């Protein structure tokens, strides 16, 4: 991860837009869950986003992947990056607030460091990364609360499900680096969503039955937002931001998503978080900043 020291106003604007879009996705998913099941909500997300991204691939006249091994890689990527995390988090949101879900979502970067260190020789766990990871896990423990784990209930299970989803995201990052190098990002995203839809369709039929299309306008609006804007469009914007801002600055998006989701949850659904959750997010944010490395670098230059 190479930190970028300066960003153009346009890059800052795109970073902020991506954070707003993803921050809003937690609320839209929760709204949809008022009428559809968590598995069905994920099928809507992967199917409609898949359709849009293949349309983009066609409009850009990008070559279609033909290697069966690459399609196998898409299938695994869809499982790790969509099926497992989307499903676990959607179920978790039935029992915990959107804001708390977004806080736990930020641990993706923490797990990402650990998974990369375990898999790749050039991603060893340095002292700085170790400190950042330790602070991140301290934040998670604070947000959950030891007492909640001691008195295990459905809320505790939901929190752990969301964390399991972030671990799956981290594994997907490692898988993508190992198996999808050289594939155009839009093609990789479309292939991944195709793989996840192939998994989600029979899973939805088995777990929740045939999805109904007779949904309230509010539900369709929520599905449209998280499938088309927060998934299809956000993937396109993500790769653009990655190109102009660098992977280091994408940690800033992780930090900005939670405040957006917390604010929207409070305004729209009258949700509130405990002091523990805010304290945990503060520790987690500090851990992410340590992982980023720029603050420590500036401190060294000023001392």
Defining key terms:
303 residues, mainly alpha, 13 helices, 80% helix, globular
Short description:
With 303 residues, the chain is mainly α. It is 80% helix and 0% strand. It has helices spanning 9-32, 38-59, 68-93, 98-105, 108-119, 127-144, 146-150, 154-179, 185-208, 217-245, 250-269, 275-292, 294-302.
Descriptive account of the structure:
The chain is an all-alpha fold. The chain has one domain (9-298). Helices cover 80% and strands 0% of the residues. It has helices at residues 9-32, 38-59, 68-93, 98-105, 108-119, 127-144, 146-150, 154-179, 185-208, 217-245, 250-269, 275-292, 294-302. The chain is globular.
Outline the secondary-structure elements:
Elements lengths: L8 H24 L5 H22 L8 H26 L4 H8 L2 H12 L7 H18 L1 H5 L3 H26 L5 H24 L8 H29 L4 H20 L5 H18 L1 H9 L1
What class, by secondary structure content? mainly alpha
Radius of gyration: 19 Å
| Percent helix range | over 70%
Intertermini distance? 24 Å
The succession of helices and strands, N to C, reads HHHHHHHHHHHHH
Shape: globular
Mean pLDDT: 88
Number of domains: 1
Question: Total number of β-strand segments?
Answer: 0
Low-pLDDT windows of residues: 1-5
Determine the strand fraction and express it as a percent band.
Answer: under 5%
Main sheet, how many strands, which sense, barrel?
none
Per DSSP, the total helix count is 13
